[in-house]
């Protein structure tokens, strides 16, 4: 669970730290009583500047002390009073005292409108929208933001700095609301518009927070390397400013991201660092998100007692804050843990609490979490009637309008799991049609939210289903496509698993081909395809455990022209000759998959103890023969192809050999042999 963007500073501050004094003092002197000395006025302005600076830097105890000092000064300007109220509302938000903040912000917003102080009215209005959003009232928040947009356009020219700064604050909150309602692509587009304005006008703090939010969205969309780069850019800025509050938020969100990547140890470290900072600055209430994330990680790692402790801590702090949507998330995490511990009675009590929360608020997100929890509870007692009810609950969620993509995805995955269970028992092929419909819907969701992780996992699952339908070629194509995207998007552990499964299919290919002549029942097909592994991993919210991968054993590297005769051969194993048997095996592999190889759909084949990777780089056909796992073999093969194409001298010798039909000896092109040895004997391990 990432810290929502509206827990961060969402205001570029028209009175930002760089121009704070001028903005606060603008037009004030003629509205202050003549009885107030210049000295008092100067002190007031300085204190307001220091308060804003302290809030921007997360120095909340300092801000609180300074606000108490301001309260003792006889401020007669209504504008100045409003600025103090804005500072207090900001502090209430940081301290998560939403009821106090809501009351004060409501009053201050109306007062600002009454005296036509539209700039500060919009600033207070943005904080008011922030509070509504964080109390789970997103629609009220969005309606207010629409009003603020109209107010800004009506009273400030669109080509002015003040309009742009206020616009960026409104856009930040709009993006946050879109995030909360699962409109991730819209949220990304909105935050990019906000960042464009903030790069021109806003403070470093406000810009850094917008960039951090951009990173969170990319991670949620499955573009994790890109997301991490933006989070780290924001981290550099906040470290430079020594902004402990925002550093703690970034550490939490980086922990959340590395959890998605499956790097649980690194995720723990980031989260623990965030908790440490929170405690240092006396902000223990905000630790609830970190505790929830730590609880989920401990659950994944099998440390169930520690997981329960963290989730209880998160829940207790969440109750103090009072955001029902957040409480529902913590309850949901806790219920799943209790069910895994087979503590069904305790889980049921929390499910009842979740039901009460759903009925009290009428919130659809909470309602769907309740349905999911209850369906999971029913599955713990696998009587037919319970499984039937659970299946219907999952269908109900899947058929509802999407309010949070992860809830719909989880319902669809559990529904798919139950249908596969039913398929194994009934052997009814019609169930396969419903499963394929579910996967099609999941793919559409992945495309809609641009989640590369989900897209890869679903195509990985589709490959397994293709095997169950005895379509080996389709399965291999889907394995290849899913692995390529996983590698491109930095999902390395997932890419390794897909590659290993593809290798396993090559080992079992004859078995699957025999099934075509005498198809076994679906139970046997499901077990051989190990489809349950895929379902369970997606259920675990994308956690992909680290996989140890041995480097391959290089055997031979061959370059041919596209008509077949080989031009260059290098054996990595001493004494291995390019004999007729080996050459015949390669040609057989080519013949079996020639169409797919030349289309670039399939890149590997197997014959005997050997595997071969093949790639066309016109006018050549290049193949790499090896033993062992394919993952690093593929990486090394790609490096070798890049090397051949980018080293001009090597390329020209090969082109000349093609024209003349010559076989190239290794002594004529020693640079190629040297580079190949360097690439293929320098493999990594996991």
Poorly predicted regions are 14-35, 597-602
Provide the gyration radius in Å: 31 Å
Strand content: 5-15%
Number of domains: 3
Stated plainly, the CATH topology of the largest domain is called Serine Threonine Protein Phosphatase 5, Tetratricopeptide repeat
Structural class: mainly alpha
Helix run count? 30
Through-space gap between termini = 28 Å
CATH superfamily of the largest domain: Tetratricopeptide repeat domain
- What is the class of the largest domain in the CATH system? Mainly Alpha
Question: Which descriptor suits the 3D outline?
Answer: globular
The helix fraction, in percent, is: over 70%
Which CATH-level-2 architecture of the largest domain? Alpha Horseshoe
Query: Residue-averaged pLDDT, rounded?
Result: 84
What topology, given as strand order, has the largest sheet? Answer: 2-1-5-4-3
Strands, count: 5
Major beta-sheet overview:
5 strands, antiparallel
Structural features, described:
The protein is mainly alpha-helical and 686 residues long. The chain folds into three domains: 5-199, Tetratricopeptide repeat domain (Serine Threonine Protein Phosphatase 5, Tetratricopeptide repeat); 381-539, Serine Threonine Protein Phosphatase 5, Tetratricopeptide repeat; 553-680, Beta-Lactamase (2-Layer Sandwich). The chain is 72% helix and 5% strand. The protein contains 30 helices and five strands. The protein has a five-stranded antiparallel β-sheet, sandwiched between helices. It is globular. Residues 14-35 and 597-602 have low confidence and may be disordered.
